[in-house]
Amino acid sequence: MSNAVNEYKPATRTGHIANFVDSRVGMSGIVKEFGRKIFPDHWSFMFGEVALYCLIILILSGTYLTFFFNPTMDTVVYDGSYVPMHGVEMSGAYASSLNISFDVRGGLFMRQVHHWAALLFVVAIAVHMMRVFFTGAFRRPRELNWVVGGTLFVLAMAAGFTGYSLPDDVLSGNGLRIIDGVMKAIPLVGTYLSLFFFGGEFPGHMVIGRLYTLHIMIVPALLLLTVAIHLFMVVVHKHTQYPGPGRTEKNVVGFPVGPVYAAKAGGFFFIVFGILALLASTTTINAIWNYGPYDPSPVQAGTQPDWYIGWVDGALRLMPGAWPWHWQLELGGTWVFAVLLPMIPAAILLGLFFTWPWIERWVTRDNREHHILDRPRNAPFRTGAGVAGITWYAIMMMAASSDLIATHFHVAFNDVLYVLRFLFIFGPFITFEVTRRICLALQRKDRELVLHGVETGRVVQLPHGEYIEVHEPLDDYARYRLVSFNSPVYEPARPNAKGKVTQGEKVRGKISRLFFEDRVAPVTPAELEAAHQHHELEASKH
Amino acid sequence: MASHRDGAPEPSDAVTTSQQEQEQFPNPGLPHHPPRLTDVDPRRAKKAERQVAWLFVLSILGSILFFIGFFAVRVDGDFYDVMNPDPTSQLRLQNFLLGLGVTFAMFGIGIGIVHWARTLMPDHELVEMRHEVSAEEDRADAQEIVETVLDESGIKRRPLIRNTLIGAIILAPLSFITLFRELGPIDTRVLSHTMWDEGIRLVRDPSGTPIRAADVTLGSTYHVLPENLLEVSHQDGYLEEKAKAVVLLMRLKPEELNVSADREDWNYDGIIAYSKVCTHVGCPIALYEQRTHHLLCPCHQSTFDAANECAVIFGPAAHPLPQLPITVDSDGYLIARSDFHEPVGPAYWERGRQKKEMASEA
After folding, report:
1. How big is the A-B interface in CB pairs under 8 Å?
2. Cβ count near A254 (within 10 Å)
3. What is the ipTM of this complex?
């Protein structure tokens, strides 16, 4: 290699630096790969970025908080500068949380940045997942990355819950008490799990320290590892893009990383940070000093978990415990169905979520690679199913606020719950069908636009007296946006190589009919031609 | 392309592509890219440059605001002190200035860079071709390498080695999992007993003063602890015992109470005591509606009927609140007749068995 004919001779300053670095650690390959890599640009691709930036801010603010937080349940008598708690016996964890809020300059600000960032982190992940789902970005070759992303969502909830419990105030202690109750409901091993988790009876003296280890080490390590895998796969697959003129399954159209994309994305980090700083400086979050140290006796009405835990808590509230019979059975042990059954919707929702790419691939028999995204309206069944899932989630989340709904709207609490129970069963079906219909209607509107053009608002009178509104045909680019989509068709059950239609294949056929029975096909050139002739015919008739 | 592993035809693929090739509009290619004002007008470009610079200056001012908030705002004294509210408002001001400073510092940089990118950096979309995720030849090579490695290791030819290795690998981690056994005790009987016992006085939570039966008026409620709990320190399990022993005391008209045969002497002249720990997942049941005699858990809204031995009438709880049998001592103070006759709090696997054992003990 030393005798290479074209030896690299640095001529510029950058060249000298590059030469020094590359000849020692070999960075040129990375610069070549990423320096001008193309990323498609769309506002909806921003949510994943928001999540990533929130994670960075969480790690920065969280690391700061560890320097002042004392994760111990040993009791101290409070003597800090928050007067209402003077002389109160409390855990060291709660006392140090009060100190961060009152006696560390800027500590309250950092605590609030951390909490707001956590809330926004899960929001961003959730919205990002919706974007990926509704545009079909999870299809081959990205199925595994969809699963990795789902894992990130679960990890984010775990990170949130373990952190939320650390200050050891009344509210977070009650959250732990609920976790204790749910653990104990697990058949056979539940009691042991609870005793192990708390190091004995609830609340014990161990749990804050253990949650601390989980919150600052294990969960963040898993999060970072999973994020690394997630981003690595994004690079391997290259980003998806929306359909449009010039875009194909074989190319990527967008801006190069350097300088435009790096500037936009990098600048956006500071904007996200700015928004969180604004929230933290103006809006109190988790005012732990109002709640007091954990004590098993007091509790406040209207307590709410952090939003991302709401759906599980709401599921607990929706379950009737003693109707139509007592949901507790003695069968070799105590089966606490009143607590176990509400965990099933969460399992179903997460199960369907993780397996959806394979379900869809099986039903459509579509095993091709997809780099061009679907517009949500062009996949009516998928969009409806997604909205149904979100509805189910949202009903459970609303149930977590059932008492607040009752007090704010002055309705009987019981009625709120009856309505939510009804919606829990029927809501997803209703929103599924409504969404699917809306999608089909939007597709028809698109067809209408392509075939007959845009209403110009210009009304002209024809020689024989008739008034018509002039329609402007779409140009090639605008039309291409509306006609270039995949429109899978109903695939009836087919015999396999042995000529037998298997039971599984029959089921697949039925589901395929469900998916694609109602379908609006994209306009073909022939149809457009026919429409034009029809228009001319109409005009010439007069 | 599509693999035909099982030899079955995959018509969906073929049909859709051919159909689409025939019947699709041709891709018109990237639309014409109109130049921006800043591309054609040097004055506009200069103006955008100044705007970006001003945004960066705004960021600098934001950081200065942060320093002012941090160093110049004096926060001395105690907070939320009704006699001296100044430090509290100073703290609020400081938090506001710190946050606002960071907000401007961040927005200035962020919006500045984005504005820079949007107005002055090239906004031509570029096209890059995608590559196959992995070349098929590589896949064949990889398969061959893995097979060679397996072959050279001899793991397939020597099942004795393979099987003993699998056994060792399964068993070795178990020792480390076993270590976690020490996380906590496994004697579940602790859950079924509380500090209540015969003759223990009922005292108010948190003052610790005993309660005279005559003081409990109709419709009143008391949050109650066992008197012996007050001697327990935090280190010796004060919170753990309190989490099981908290009790709610109410007085109803004796004729309003539905009392079952074996509980006739558990109330004292209409004064009843029930565990305050919800049987659903363990929140304290703090809300009592005296008109309807309903107890409501604020966490998941389980509702219990105090007049009817705290049976569940609404919400997710599945069994009634345990009742604490009470009476009065010679001084007229309320005392417990015994411990609870069933485990308090949320249900667990061993609960039914323990309840039976407790019943046979009593």
Report:
1. 368
2. 23
3. 0.90
